[in-house]
From TrEMBL:
One of its GO terms (molecular function) is oxidoreductase activity. This is NAD-dependent succinate-semialdehyde dehydrogenase. It comes from the Bacteria. Transmembrane segments: none annotated. Its EC number is 1.2.1.-. Residues 12-475 form the Aldehyde dehydrogenase domain. Keywords: Oxidoreductase.
């Protein structure tokens, strides 16, 4: 049984409020505990971060850059051990888990280089004896919340730009997958960061929130989470006008025109629908296929889905998809399927827990394909966040766009066609922050990752992500 605590100013702090049990979703057994901090301990961590901000914000950009590059090196050195913890607590294959950790190291490196490129402006004067200088300064203490589906990757999207900007960070790991986040932060701290720059706090969400949202030291809150959680953050942060970066839910449409590369569209659709057991904000949940190829597409899609192999994180060969993170996720899938079937949908494959003996102890759910779907079904309106996809059809471009835009979300959409004129036409009409055309890799370290509508506010990735952690200041001088 592994035992973990919180990391404050480079020291491990045991919480005073009991423990969080960390469960291996492949077998349903507790394999680690994390002690929970009380509210006073949370306040102390924030105060330490505030003290650290006084120095870190004045640290020359070149030194911050070098510090982040050292963090990246240390994370790469420990990628295997962090990856093993990530695989065990989240359920994804070890291959995918280690890849995630290495991607987080890339993120640290990228923002390390960007740290020396924070630029201001010299606006034109409005009088002969006056001069204006516009500079950018770090916001202050950042509270960053890790998501359980990609707990290392997504926290790096917050920690790296915040540190590059000169902010200090208090990280709250997910209760489901805290260990890999803790070890990622430990690696960064061990690389030589000053002691009050980066902290990890664990505990009950309510206890931590009670302190974070009223504490004036916390100036910005960065979250990857559900839309409902994001709305609670907006409401709570309004009392003290805290800045927010929220990457929230998605319900991605996947549009396939008749002229698309058929085999690629099917292969990519299956992969993006079921990777990480569908537990991805940009997972494909709704597929819209042009009417003339609908039957052939459904047949091929189901055939490939039925070949997918379920398994544990360390199975050999690596499985195509692992378990869901907890029992609640499995029950959610059952509810979505039951709702769809009750309203007339047909289950072509999956739709239930697996019957194989080797999978009985974990939180597994078969990859599921639904057809004969209608707009009133939950699967067509709400994000299932699991291995469940519905296939529908369209006759015109306008119908495809209308169906894709019919939900409250707007994170990522996918589009397959060989007609580049139509690709631009549809991409511009889609109410989604990212549109991937003929590929299923919508995010890039070098480009913004915005959420439209109820999928978020603020930006992550690219230089845009760094700018979220900076504030403008106008300095006006009388020079004559």
């Amino acid at each position: 049984m592994l035992e973990y605590h919180s990391l404050v100013s480079g020291e491990w702090v045991k919480g005073s409020e009991g423990v969080i049990n960390v469960i291996d979703p492949s077998c349903g057994k507790v394999f680690a505990t994390v002690s929970k901090l009380g509210r006073g301990q949370v306040a102390e961590a924030i105060e330490r971060a505030h003290q650290g901000f006084k120095e870190w914000s004045r640290t020359p950009a070149l030194e911050r850059s070098r510090a982040l590059l050292k963090c990246a090196v240390k994370v790469r050195e420990r990628s295997e051990e962090i990856g093993k913890l990530l695989a065990q607590e989240q359920g994804k294959s070890f291959v995918d888990a280690r890849k995630e950790v290495l991607g987080a190291a890339d993120c640290l490196e990228y923002y390390g280089y960007l740290a020396v490129n924070i630029l201001g402006e010299v606006p034109p004067p409005n009088a002969l004896n006056l001069r204006s200088i516009a500079i950018r300064q770090p916001v202050g203490v950042v509270f960053a919340v890790a998501a359980w589906n990609y707990p290392v990757s997504l926290i790096s999207w917050k920690v790296a730009p915040a540190l590059a900007a000169g902010c200090t960070v208090v990280v709250k790991p997910s209760r489901e997958t805290p260990l890999s986040t803790i070890e990622f932060i430990r690696a960064c701290v061990d690389s030589g960061l000053p002691e009050n720059v980066l902290h990890v706090i664990n505990g009950d969400n309510e206890v931590i929130s009670e302190e974070v949202f009223v504490n004036p030291r916390v100036r910005l809150i960065a979250l990857t989470g559900s839309t409902d959680t994001g709305k609670k953050f907006i409401e709570a942060s309004a009392r003290n006008v805290k800045r927010l970066i929220l990457e929230l839910g998605g319900h991605s449409p996947f549009i396939v025109f008749a002229d698309a590369d058929f085999d690629k569209a099917v292969k990519d659709g299956v992969k993006r629908a079921f990777r990480n057991a569908g537990q991805i904000c940009n997972s494909v949940n709704r597929i819209f296929v042009e009417e003339s190829i609908k039957d052939a597409f459904i047949k091929s899609f189901v055939e490939q889905t039925q070949k997918l192999r379920l398994g544990g994180a360390f199975d050999e060969p690596p499985p195509d998809l692992g378990p869901m993170v907890n029992e609640a996720g499995v029950r959610r899938m059952e509810e979505f399927v039951e709702d769809a079937v009750k309203k007339g949908a047909q289950v072509l494959c999956g739709g239930k827990r697996p019957t194989e003996q080797r999978l009985q102890q974990g939180f597994y759910f078969e990859p599921t394909v639904l057809v004969n779907v209608s707009p009133d079904m939950k699967i067509m309106q709400e994000e299932p966040f699991g291995p469940l996809v519905a296939i529908d059809s369209f006759k015109t471009v306008e119908e495809a766009v209308e169906k894709a835009n019919s939900v409250r979300y707007g994170l990522v959409a996918y589009l397959y066609t060989r007609d580049m004129g139509r690709a631009f036409q549809v991409a511009e009409a889609l109410e989604w922050g990212s549109v991937a055309v003929n590929n299923i890799n919508p995010d890039s370290l070098f480009a913004p990752y915005p959420g439209w509508k109820e999928s978020g506010i603020g930006l992550e990735l690219g230089h845009y992500g760094l700018e979220e952690y900076l504030e403008w200041k106008h300095i006006k001088l009388e020079v004559m």
